[in-house]
């Protein structure tokens, strides 16, 4: 599991804790923009900052614009439409904020937010923004699932479900404009269809966990071309795929919970984020049959950023002495990966 | 008052002078006694909160005071005092970066230590000393690398001929101190070349000393500024002063560069200043040919390098001979330019080791010391000799303004580990001490005994452990660095684990991400009992705050049967009570949650069945008649047959199903079923006579009405059959 040599790694110390990083689509192909959710522990100020990434002989991040948040950001998502960039951020205080980014004059414009007490009680643990930016799903440990509709200049939200704290949700991802998937405690996954009242359409309970220990799903992802399969990452180094056609048979890509994979698992601790790795896919397109799960990039608490693939040895992209808390693959150029490290820095990796 | 403190130099904690007006909060309520008058607590970062409380005055007096002076605080006030860091050069952000980066080298060295100890235990005393020195050097180099300032100044591609001093990077005292320790304690390979290492050290860090006194470096910086404006630099005494000073401390490349700027090199002057130019060039060549005893050849260092002493001595004699010859040369007479003649002769005197000239051209004792190494006693070896030389130099040039590095150098030369430690601690803080101890103990048996000895007055721990613990405490006090404290705490054998436990218990469990980070540390160090306690704390916290799912999840992870059973008991309390639609849903969800736990099956099996029963009953009430009623009866019979159903629930169950027993259409129970229920009722009546029977919370006529219903039902069934 050696780190491949054919890649460039740059680290950018930030002097603040980084809660999340995301790519933002630039106006022109020569620019690269990054959105970061930061927290300054000394002054207790949280902010969202837009940086441009310069890859000259001395690569650096340049602050372009920033916005102050009233509380720590718990989840950050960006809609990938070129003309209208929307950054959605949820906070630990249970509020949701939308920022509009202008790629031409590189500034954060207006802000719309939901701050009502009745929206969520306690922190929002996961959000996802539809790719056209029109709707955002939010969920929290309080067991509420809300849909926020982003109109022209106003927001309205409706409650899809409220488990009143009996079920806690931790991660969300849209599958289509009407369906989304959520993850939660006990490695559970839920499939929702907003056209059907009453909430969950299909459910997966992760009862496989060995012995008495179970885990939490921290991140889910769905590939645009295969909407029936979603991958989830969580505790015990677990990355698994859930195919709606065989809803009770998860496919494991990594994790110490199952015996046959334990020896090859790149991580034994929390997998904080998973994303389908389009870059790896393009390089080994010949042996990707439709039945196989596409390769997945994951980052973990024990400092591993690795590509895991069904039936193959994992490939480490980056190994750090500290946790890697979030990652994002550049949708315009999948060889570029950005990730945030526990020790107040951002790492940029470009694979060749 | 804080204002007074800042003027007082005897204050215990350094007080940053830039914050003149600390933030003051006024308290409007007097705290109730018993409470102390003064309270001090840490706030965020390096902020200290000092609270003054006023004790309640006799009522009449306090009333008049309040009226007269509305601004006067009633309860007292809280002053926020921002404490400055120990070292002005390094700010908090940089300090954290250093802390992060030094984790890996430290942990690596510790693991080497452990494996080396294990190896030497297996095969007695056969540990490889060479390997060990390699590890120490690797560690020292890693640490040195992370102390480097990250931003090198932009260097222009075209070399400026006038630029005599080249700044490669901004030096910092921390790195200078570390390099000193490395030279003297870690780099055993370089021991024979100690003086030359010090020459290099001063060349890198003389600029640091400029902050408190004039140095050769500061002289050269001034000269550099003037060079551009001077037409004939050889006429300026400053030029010659700078030259001789640079030569005295061995900065040969600068000397040669400066000499080549001499006016006689200019093409239009070459013709009539031929001799002068020849002399300048001869001195420049001699300077660049100076024999030096160095371990490795470095491109940037001028001179001829020798690794062995005999070769060096031979060449040294030859070189001195050449200088002496040049001194007596006849060409000096033909040199018309007085300044050049005197300046060059001065340079030659320096190279010949003329101590009075060395005294005048150097600025402080360290520079004098270095010049002595280079030109007076090039064969000085051994720490004793170096120390006495240092003392002599200090007598000549006493220190007026002590720089923090000076104390450290003296401690090292004096071979006094305690002084070295104290200087490190005073000037550079806990990080330096915790990491430098590794170098101090590397090969020095005396130091090892001193630092590893367990001391009664330190509570049975060694000095090494004490300093690691102090550093770990510093790390623990910050929300971003506490995660690396365990690396240092686990290397402390006596008290590390205890403090680690406290540290882990102190972390808030509010958010899952932080909680999981804490649990990961527990997993890394096999602290299973701590992790299960923390999970219990988290479980109860979430449960109390209405996140029942999370609560149950964490309690299950902790395998906390006691609390899970308590939760199950709460569910039992629902039995027999009318349940509304919404609470039924909740209740059902809770059973689902607990259901994944195998061990509480006994109680839960009952609850599952009761839920089915209740569900059918509700359907009956909703008017979905027959089948539902039949289903409810089946559930009821199952429940009553099941031995795990507690006796105290029998009556509530039967009372719940009164409607079924009195079913209008036709009797739903057959004879045997009715008999079973009647028998249970009989048992219940007997049990009621026992002293420990607990009466169910039901109407008084409940038993009677159930009995009546059952009897009626029996009658109807018999008739029907």
Q: What can you tell me about this protein's structure?
A:
Chain A: This is Anaphase-promoting complex subunit 4 WD40 domain-containing protein. Chain A: It is found in: Nucleus. Chain A: InterPro entries: WD40/YVTN_repeat-like_dom_sf, WD40_repeat_dom_sf. Chain A: It comes from Aquilegia coerulea (Rocky mountain columbine). Chain A: Keywords: Nucleus, Repeat, WD repeat. The complex is a heterodimer of chains A (about 350) and B (about 725). In chain A, strand 2 and strand 3 (about 35-40) form a beta hairpin. Chain A has two helices and 28 strands. The mean pLDDT of chain A is about 85. Chain A has a single domain, classed as Methylamine Dehydrogenase, Chain H (7 Propeller), CATH 2.130.10.10. Chain A starts with 6 loop residues before the first strand and ends with a strand. By secondary structure, chain A is mostly beta strands. In chain A, the strands form seven sheets. Chain A has a four-stranded antiparallel sheet, with no helix packed on it. Chain A has helices at about 260, 280-285; strands at about 5-15, 15-25, 35-40, 45-55, 60-70, 75-80, 85-90, 95-100, 105-115, 125-130, 135-140, 145-150, 155-160, 170-175, 180-185, 190-195, 200-205, 215-225, 225-235, 240-245, 250-255, 270-275, 295-300, 305-310, 315-320, 325-330, 335-340, 345-350. Chain B is mainly α and about 725 residues long. Among the domains of chain B are: about 20-55 and about 75-85, no CATH class; about 190-380, no CATH class; about 560-720, no CATH class. Chain B contains 34 helices and six strands. Chain B has helices at about 1-5, 60-70, 90-100, 105-120, 130-145, 175-185, 195-210, 215-225, 235-250, 250-260, 275-290, 310-325, 330-335, 340-350, 355-360, 365-375, 385-395, 405-415, 415-440, 445-450, 465-475, 485-490, 495-505, 510-525, 530-545, 550-555, 560-570, 580-595, 600-620, 625-640, 650-655, 660, 670-690, 700-720, and strands at about 25, 40, 45-55, 75-80, 290-295, 305. In chain B, a hairpin with a 4-residue loop joins strand 2 and strand 3 (about 45-55). Chain B is rod-shaped. At the A-B interface, loops of A face helix 3, helix 4, helix 24, helix 26 and helix 28 of B.
């Amino acid at each position: 599991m050696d780190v491949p040599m054919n890649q460039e790694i740059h680290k950018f110390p930030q002097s603040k804790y980084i809660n999340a990083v995301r790519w933002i689509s630039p106006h022109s192909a020569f620019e690269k923009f990054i959105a970061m959710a930061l927290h300054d522990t000394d002054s207790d100020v949280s902010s969202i900052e837009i940086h441009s990434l310069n890859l000259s002989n001395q690569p650096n991040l340049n602050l372009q614009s920033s916005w102050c948040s009233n509380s720590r950001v718990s989840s950050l998502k960006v809609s990938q439409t070129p003309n209208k960039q929307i950054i959605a951020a949820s906070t630990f205080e249970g509020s949701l904020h939308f920022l509009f980014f202008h790629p031409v004059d590189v500034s954060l414009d207006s802000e719309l937010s939901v701050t009502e007490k009745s929206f969520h009680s306690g922190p929002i643990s996961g959000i996802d923004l539809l790719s056209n930016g029109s709707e955002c799903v939010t969920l929290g440990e309080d067991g509420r699932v809300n849909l926020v509709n982003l109109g022209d200049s106003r927001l309205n939200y409706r409650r899809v479900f409220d488990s009143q704290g009996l079920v806690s949700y931790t991660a969300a991802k849209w599958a289509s404009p009407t369906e989304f998937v959520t993850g939660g405690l006990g490695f559970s996954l839920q499939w929702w269809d907003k056209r059907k009242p009453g909430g969950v359409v299909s459910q997966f309970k992760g009862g496989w966990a060995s012995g008495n220990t179970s885990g939490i799903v921290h991140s889910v992802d769905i590939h645009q071309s295969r909407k029936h399969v979603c991958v989830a990452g969580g505790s015990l180094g677990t990355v698994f795929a859930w195919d709606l056609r065989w809803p009770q048979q998860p496919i494991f890509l990594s994790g110490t919970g199952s015996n046959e994979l334990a020896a090859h698992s790149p991580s034994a601790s929390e997998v904080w984020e998973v994303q389908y790795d389009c870059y790896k896919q393009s390089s080994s397109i010949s042996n990707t049959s439709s039945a196989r799960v596409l390769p997945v990039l994951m980052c973990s608490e024990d400092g591993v950023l690795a590509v895991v693939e069904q039936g193959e040895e994992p490939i480490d992209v980056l190994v750090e002495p500290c946790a890697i808390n979030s990652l994002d693959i550049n949708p315009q150029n999948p060889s570029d990966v950005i990730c945030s490290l526990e020790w107040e820095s951002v790492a940029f990796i470009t694979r060749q | 008052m804080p204002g007074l403190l800042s003027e007082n130099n005897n204050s215990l904690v350094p007080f940053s002078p830039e914050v003149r007006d600390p933030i003051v909060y006024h308290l409007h309520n007097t705290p109730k006694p018993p409470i102390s008058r003064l309270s001090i607590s840490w706030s965020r970062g390096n902020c200290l909160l000092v609270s003054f409380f006023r004790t309640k005055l006799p009522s009449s007096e306090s009333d008049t005071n309040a009226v007269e002076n509305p601004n006067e605080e009633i309860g007292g006030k809280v002053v926020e005092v921002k404490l400055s860091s120990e070292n002005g050069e390094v700010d908090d952000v940089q300090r954290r970066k250093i802390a992060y980066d030094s984790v890996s080298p430290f942990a690596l060295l510790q693991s080497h230590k452990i494996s080396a100890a294990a190896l030497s235990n297996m095969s007695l005393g056969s540990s490889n000393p060479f390997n060990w020195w390699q590890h120490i050097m690797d560690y020292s180099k890693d640490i040195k690398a992370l102390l480097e300032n990250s931003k090198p100044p932009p260097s222009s591609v075209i070399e400026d001929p006038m630029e005599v001093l080249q700044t490669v990077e901004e030096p910092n005292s921390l790195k200078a101190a570390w390099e000193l320790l490395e030279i003297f304690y870690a780099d055993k390979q370089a021991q024979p070349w100690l003086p030359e290492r010090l020459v290099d050290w001063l060349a890198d860090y003389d600029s640091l000393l400029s902050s408190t006194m004039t140095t050769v470096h500061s002289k050269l910086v001034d000269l550099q500024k003037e060079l551009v404006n001077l037409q004939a630099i050889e006429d300026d005494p400053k030029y010659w002063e700078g030259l001789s000073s640079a030569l005295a401390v061995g900065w040969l490349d600068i000397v040669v560069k400066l000499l080549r700027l001499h006016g006689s090199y200019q093409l239009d002057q070459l013709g009539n200043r031929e001799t002068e130019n020849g002399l300048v060039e001869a001195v420049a060549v001699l300077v660049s040919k100076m024999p030096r005893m160095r371990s490795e050849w470095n491109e940037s260092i001028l001179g001829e390098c020798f690794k062995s002493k005999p070769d060096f001595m031979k060449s040294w004699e030859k070189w001195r001979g050449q200088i002496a010859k040049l001194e007596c040369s006849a060409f000096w007479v033909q040199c018309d330019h007085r300044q050049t003649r005197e300046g060059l002769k001065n340079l030659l005197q320096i190279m010949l080791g003329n101590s009075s000239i060395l005294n005048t051209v150097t600025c402080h004792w360290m520079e004098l010391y270095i010049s002595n190494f280079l030109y007076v006693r090039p064969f000085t070896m051994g720490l004793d000799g170096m120390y006495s030389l240092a003392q002599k130099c200090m007598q000549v040039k006493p220190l007026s303004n002590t720089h923090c590095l000076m104390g450290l150098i003296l401690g090292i030369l004096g071979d006094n580990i305690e002084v070295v430690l104290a200087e490190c601690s005073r000037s550079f803080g806990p990080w330096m001490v915790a990491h430098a101890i590794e170098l101090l103990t590397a090969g020095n048996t005396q130091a090892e005994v001193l630092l590893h000895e367990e001391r009664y007055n330190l509570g049975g721990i060694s000095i090494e452990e004490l300093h690691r613990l102090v550093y770990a405490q510093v790390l623990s006090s910050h929300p971003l660095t506490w995660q690396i404290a365990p690396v240092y705490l686990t290397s402390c054998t006596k008290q590390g684990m205890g403090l680690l436990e406290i540290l882990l218990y102190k972390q808030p469990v509010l958010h899952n991400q932080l909680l999981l980070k804490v649990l990961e540390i527990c997993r890394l160090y096999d602290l299973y009992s701590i992790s299960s306690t923390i999970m219990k704390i988290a479980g109860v916290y979430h449960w109390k705050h209405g996140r029942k799912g999370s609560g149950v999840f964490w309690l299950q992870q902790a395998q906390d049967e006691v609390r899970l059973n308590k939760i199950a008991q709460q569910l039992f309390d629902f039995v027999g009570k009318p349940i509304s639609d919404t609470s039924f849903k909740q209740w059902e969800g809770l059973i689902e949650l607990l259901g994944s736990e195998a061990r509480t099956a006994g109680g839960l099996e009952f609850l599952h069945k009761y839920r089915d029963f209740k569900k059918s009953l509700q359907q009956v009430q909703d008017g979905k008649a027959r089948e539902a009623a039949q289903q409810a009866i089946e559930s009821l019979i199952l429940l009553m047959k099941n031995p795990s159903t507690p006796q105290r629930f029998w009556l509530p169950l039967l009372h719940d199903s009164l409607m079924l027993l009195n079913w209008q259409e036709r009797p739903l129970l057959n004879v045997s079923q009715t008999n079973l229920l009647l028998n249970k009722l009989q048992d219940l009546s007997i049990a009621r006579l026992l002293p420990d029977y607990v009466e169910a919370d039901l109407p008084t006529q409940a038993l009677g009405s159930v009995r009546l219903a059952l009897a009626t039902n029996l009658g109807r069934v018999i008739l029907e059959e």
